[in-house]
Amino acid sequence: MSVRITGIAISLTLFFCGAIHAQTQDFSAAHRKIERALEGSAGFPGSDAIWVRHNALLIAVEKGAINEKKYAKQVCGFLNANGFSTQKVNIIIFDQSELRSHNTWSQLAEVQCE
Q: Considering the entire predicted model, what is its pTM?
């Protein structure tokens, strides 16, 4: 059991180190504008929108507060309308409360925009 927990802890550490590293990368002004627009929108159900690659956007939400897959598809529509239609962005929705309380995360939905 401790081997599994340690493996999970290492995986999460590497994942979030990658996310932190991604935040220090130079994403385009358009990428940053998308983050700000999502986080500043009155209907944004999450706490954070974070680009981890030029074509992968993580969004932290409260589990069960929304239909995660439907919301990911809505984000795709928003991205497509704002110049990202050719990038086939992956939207990954994950549980923000699990991350904050247990330092683990569960992917709730993933959609590749078309």
A: 0.72
